[in-house]
Structures
1.
Amino acid sequence: MKLQIVGGGKMGEALLGGVLNTGWATADEVAVVEPADGRRDELAATYPGLAVGTEPHTGTDAIIAVKPQYVPEVAAQLAAAGVGRILSIAAGVTIATIESAAPSSAVVRCMPNTPSLVGAGASAIAAGSQAHVADLDWAEAILGSVGTVVRLDESALDAVTGLSGSGPAYVFHLAEALIDAGIAEGLEPAVADALARQTILGAATLMVETGEDPGVLRENVTSPGGTTAAGLAVFAEADLLGLVGRVVHAAVERSRELGAS
């Protein structure tokens, strides 16, 4: 057994699919620990050969993918099972909390985001006191199967939470606003929806694939005195940059509060 994933929810399954799709592991090298009978049945049917059960496996590297309130209990169970390496993707649960329950384990904490579900995630990882470069390499290989990974100190993870952890919701909210605005200007709802989705996808793809500075890409679309300039002038008047800064700051502060509780 190469890996066990404790928690068979959406994020747990996303990482399972990632390591299988990239060939990092085969189905018979991975186990999922999941208490819900129905969910275990679904996973077993979807991934033939996968070991699915309710108890942790002894000595097998583990991902903790449960709700934050259950992390200390799960970490203690893994420690009791002799698990030496733990990757936690639970939001707001500090390394110190995990290490207090599993003091002899190498702990890596991660802040992923929901686009990991479609292989386009952005994750940051931080090493615990017992974790070494090999442990970070291990965690990065797993998370790299579902997107981009950066290595940071744990002190930076609250900022990551506010930016990329919560960031998809900000983009979805922008999409809602664009769709509503298109409808208000006379477009059919289905047309406004399709155009907004493709516009966001296209803009993000252009930004990633060209590597250009977002400001340069914005300028490339903006002709002096043109339609885009008229729209951007409204953003400037409303202080969009300041608003986004306040949005991210609020999420960062809340992440800090949750981590301290």
Note: Residues 167-260 form a domain with the ProC C-terminal domain-like fold fold (CATH 1.10.3730.10).
2.
Amino acid sequence: MFREVVQVITSHRQTEGGGFVVRRPFPTPGFAHADPFLLLDEMGPVEYRPGEAIGAPDHPHRGFETVTYVLEGEAEHADSAGHRGRIGPGDVQWMTAGRGVVHAEMPSRVMHERGGRMHGFQLWVNLPARDKMVPPRYQEIPSSSIPSASTPDGLATVRVIAGEALGARAQIETRTPIGYQHWRFEAGAALEVPLPRAHAAYVYVFDGSVAVAGRTLQAGQFAVLGAGDTVPFAASDLGQALLLSGIPLGEPVVQYGPFVMNTAHEIEQAILDYRAGRLGAIDHAEPPQGEHT
């Protein structure tokens, strides 16, 4: 049973962090969350001149996971638990904020000094109520360890960040069962991608155009898919898209900026904990120690 496109949302542009521009398909007025996902930001693509690159300085998180996927450029990260590292093209950082952490993602020193092109995504994955207060955790996967596969005709390729596609299975462990696939289509590509029937499914086209269940989506458009077990794709030209899927949590979502909990009382407690310093602080005296630390 094919999954039909039941809703299309055109992303809007806004500034985040220290002022960098993102293209955001959700949340948006009329479409708050794509359960189990809370937010999707496309960062760039933007070309920075020397000294121009900006990022997201120290900010807290509690109650969900952030997934940063870099296509181009390089970023350094640090947090209040002492984690530090650097991610570059094709790398993924999967941060489970859980009970809370203060985090910063900034352009690398090289990007800041020399400039360059930055492009990537940040996806927020909700945590079920039972996992909201788990200890923070990182999974950092270098590009060389992200599994990929191609169709027999070579016209469609996929990088599997979470879940499975074309026989390639991701290494990342997820608390919320999800799929996160980056597809690249050449002209003439046509295929059907199976997904678990229990998953909600969404497609975000970010380059060129891609037909999903017979409906053509342009770059910057996000599609909500209906029930079924197969997603049909086709392309008459070059196109790239993210295919996201996951088992909906069906739980209350109460959000205040970077805190996502189930009740207003839990949000109030998160604010109190942050203001009291119980989420810690980043020691900026210590520089990043290289990749994937």
Note: The two ends are 44 Å apart (CA to CA).
